[in-house]
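Incident log, support desk, overnight shift.

02:14 A customer reports that sequence design results differ from what the structure should imply. Their input is reproduced verbatim below. On-call engineer (initials T.W.) acknowledged and began investigating.
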C-alpha cells in the first residue's frame, strides 16, 4: 500500500474576499490527477474558511492554519478544535515555524495542540524544521527529532497525521532545499519514527516537504522516494499551484 501524495496550500495571512474567490475558481477549473493519486488541501485564513469550503470543488479539502490547545472557553482571539469540527473543517496545520518563532510556540505546546486536535477528530499537518543556524551547526536531525518527539510523547494514533518537513531557511526565501537535502531529512525522520514509534507508522506516514516549492522545482522533489508531497506557501496563491498538484504524477513512474 503506497502513501498517497499530499499537496497542501498554506495561504497564510493573505487574501481579500475577491482574491480568495479567484484562487478557488482557478482550482475548481483545473484538470488534476484523481483523488486516488493526490490529496489536495488548501488552508485559507480562519475568516475565509466557511466561504472557501462552500465554493471549493468537493474533491479538494480545507484546513485551518491553527487551533487552540484545548477545549474552547475564555481564550480571547482563539479558535477551538471543536469549532473547526462543528464547521466540518477536516484538517488543521499545527506547529508552523512562523508560529513557533513569532508566537513562541514550544515543542511541548505544539505536541499538546496536535494531541488535542486529534482527540477532537481533526486531521493534522504537523510542521517541523530547523533554522539556518541549526543546519549550519549540524543539529538538523536533533532539532527535527525533538520536535517530532514532543508529538510522539502525546500521540498514539498517527493515522490522521501528516508531517511537514519545512526547513525555516527555505520558507518564503526562494531558497528551496535540494532534492537530496529534502530526501535526506525525510529518510532520517522515517528512521527515527521506526525506532521511536513503530515500523508501521514509519512506513505509512506521509512526510511532505515545504519551503519555496514552486511549479519549476516540484517535479524533481516529488521524485524523491521519501517525499510524499508538499506544503506550499507563496506558490499556493498562484495558478502554478495546479502544476504542483500535477507533480504527483511523478510517483506513478517511480
Ligand atoms: P513558502 O512557504 O512555500 O512560501 O516557502 C511554505 C510554508 O510556510 O508552508
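02:41 Re-run completed on a clean worker. Output:
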Amino acid at each position: 500500500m503506497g502513501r498517497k501524495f499530499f499537496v497542501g496550500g498554506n495561504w497564510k495571512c493573505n487574501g481579500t474576499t475577491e482574491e480568495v474567490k479567484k484562487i478557488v475558481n482557478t482550482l475548481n477549473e483545473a484538470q488534476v490527477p484523481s483523488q486516488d493519486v493526490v490529496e489536495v488541501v488548501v488552508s485559507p485564513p480562519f475568516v475565509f474558511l466557511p466561504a472557501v469550503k462552500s465554493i471549493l470543488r468537493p474533491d479538494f479539502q480545507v484546513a485551518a492554519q491553527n487551533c487552540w490547545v484545548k477545549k474552547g472557553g475564555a481564550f480571547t482571539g482563539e479558535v477551538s478544535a471543536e469549532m473547526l469540527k462543528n464547521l466540518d473543517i477536516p484538517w488543521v496545520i499545527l506547529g508552523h515555524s512562523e508560529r513557533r518563532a513569532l508566537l513562541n510556540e514550544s515543542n511541548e505546546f505544539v505536541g499538546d495542540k496536535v494531541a488535542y486536535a486529534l482527540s477532537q477528530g481533526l486531521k493534522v499537518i504537523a510542521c517541523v524544521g530547523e533554522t539556518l543556524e541549526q543546519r549550519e551547526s549540524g543539529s538538523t536531525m536533533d532539532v527535527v527529532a525533538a520536535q517530532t518527539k514532543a508529538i510522539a510523547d502525546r500521540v498514539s494514533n498517527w493515522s490522521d497525521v501528516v508531517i511537514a518537513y519545512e526547513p525555516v531557511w527555505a520558507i518564503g526565501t526562494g531558497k528551496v532545499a535540494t532534492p537530496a537535502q529534502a530526501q535526506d531529512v525525510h529518510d532520517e525522520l522515517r528512521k527515527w519514527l521506526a525506532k521511536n514509534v513503530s515500523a508501521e507508522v514509519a512506513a505509512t506516514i506521509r512526510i511532505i516537504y515545504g519551503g519555496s516549492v514552486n511549479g519549476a522545482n516540484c517535479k524533481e522533489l516529488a521524485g524523491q522516494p521519501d517525499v510524499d508531497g508538499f506544503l506550499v506557501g507563496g506558490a499556493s496563491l498562484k495558478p502554478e499551484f495546479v502544476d504542483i498538484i500535477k507533480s504527483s504524477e511523478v510517483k506513478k513512474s517511480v
